[in-house]
Amino acid sequence: MPRGNVKGRSAKTKRDDSKPAPSKTKTEAQDKDSWLSENILNRISNKLGIPKTQIRNIPETAKQLAQELGNAEKIIDKYHSDKSALIQILLEIQKENRWLPHSSLMLVSEKLGVPLSQVYRIATFYKAFSLIPQGRHLFTVCMGTACHVRGSPRLLDRVEDTLKIKPGETSKDQKFTLETVNCLGCCALGPVMVVDGEYHSNPSPREVEKMVAACE
Questions:
Q1: pTM of this prediction exceeds 0.85
Q2: Radius of gyration over alpha carbons of the chain, in Å?
Q3: pLDDT digits over 20-55, tens only?
Q4: Residue 137 carries which DSSP code?
Q5: In the beta sheet, which residues pair with residue 136?
Q6: Rounded CA gap, 33 and 27, in Å?
Q7: Same domain, 119 and 147
Q8: 158 and 100 belong to one structural domain
Q9: Which of 198, 192, 116 is nearest to 159 (CA)?
Q10: Would you state the pLDDT for residue 197?
Q11: Which of 169, 174, 175, 158 has the alpha carbon at shortest distance from 209?
Q12: Considering only CA atoms, which of 73, 62, 128, 48 is closest in space to residue 95?
C-alpha cells in the first residue's frame, strides 16, 4: 500500500510537470497588436502622405483619396500631361485641395514623366504651395518694411488673438490658416492683410472680428 501511494504521488507530479508553460498575458498580446497596428499605420501614412487619424477610418479615407486623385487626373489631362505646364498644374491642384497631397504629387510625377524629386523642388520653392492641409479661409498679413513701420506687428497680434493661431498654423477645425509675407505690392496702403484674396488696409480690431465672423 505505501508503495502504491508513492507511485501515485510520482504520477501526479509527472502530470503537473507536463503542463504547458503559461501563455503571454492578454495585456502583452494587446500591446503587441497595438504596436503592430501603429507600425503599419506609420508606414502607410508615410507612403501616401495621409494622416494616421484618417487612415483609421478606411472607407472615408479611401473616398477622399479617390477624390483627390480623380481631381488631380482631370487637371493633368486638361494640360495633356505636358511637363512644361507643371507649375500651372500644381497651382490648380493646390486651389482644388487647398494643399498638395503626396498622392497627387506622385500622380503628377508619373503622368508627366517628371522625377518626383523635381516635383517636390517646385512645390517647396514657391510660397504659393503648401505640403500640409490649409484652412478654408486664408489670412495673410504683410510684414514688409513699409507695413512694419506702419504697424503690421500690431495688426498681426490682432489677427492672432482673434483666430487663436500663430503664423504658419491652421485651426484644428481646418477653417482658418494664418500666414505672413514680406510684401504684397501695395505699400501705400500698409499695414495690409489679405483675407481669401481680398485686401484690407489697417483694419481695426472690430473689423478683424467682423471678417472672421463672416467666414462660413
A1: no
A2: 29
A3: 555 555 555 455 445 445 666 676 677 666 676 666
A4: E
A5: none
A6: 10
A7: no
A8: no
A9: 192
A10: 87
A11: 158
A12: 128
Angle between helices 86-97 and 116-125 (to 10 degrees): 70
Burial of residue 107 (CB within 10 Å: 0-12, 13-18, 19+) is buried
The grid cell for 123 is: 512645390
- Non-local (6+) Cβ contacts of 87 within 8 A are 122, 126
Among 207, 108, 215, 118, CA closest to 159: 207
What whole-number distance in Å separates Cα of residue 168 and Cα of residue 135? Answer: 11
The CA distances from residue 172 to 136, 176, 214, in Å, are 12, 9, 19
Residues 141 and 120 in one domain: no
Residues whose CB is less than 8 angstroms from the CB of residue 168 and which lie 6 or more positions away in sequence, other chains included: 178, 179
CA-based end-to-end distance of the chain: 93
Is 151 among the domain residues?
yes
The helix/strand count (H/E) of the chain reads as 10, 4
Look-up of cell digits 500690431 = 154
Q: How confident is the model at residue 127 (pLDDT cuts 50, 70, 90)?
A: confident
**Residue 23 CB coordination number (10 Å):** 8
Strand positions, DSSP E, 31-126: none
C-alpha cell at 150: 506702419
Residues 74 and 70: their CA atoms lie apart, in Å, by: 6
Number of domains in the chain: 2
Question: For residues 216 and 212, what is the distance between their CA atoms, to the nearest angstrom?
Answer: 9
- What type of residue sits at position 116? L
Alpha carbon distance 44, 155 (integer Å): 41
